[in-house]
Specification:
mainly alpha; about 95% helix; single chain
Length: about 70
């Protein structure tokens, strides 16, 4: 397992954790819960974009190696 594989896994775990915290904040209710959930869901979208970019880079590296 090389560095890009570890980064991909870390990004995916970060997305899942952020999703969990965002859903928890949403179910708490209230204005503060909605605001916090909205911020966490925006962060999740950014983390998903990072994960997708890392996946594309990883695929390009693997294709270049012939693996």
């Amino acid at each position: 397992m090389n560095l890009i594989d570890i980064l991909i896994i870390a990004a995916m775990v970060a997305v899942v954790i952020t999703l969990g915290f965002g859903m928890h904040a949403l179910y708490k209710g209230g204005d503060e819960g909605r605001t916090r959930s909205n911020k966490l869901m925006r962060l999740r979208v950014v983390l998903q974009a990072v994960a997708i970019v890392l996946l594309v880079i990883g695929m390009a590296i693997k294709a270049g190696q012939g693996a």
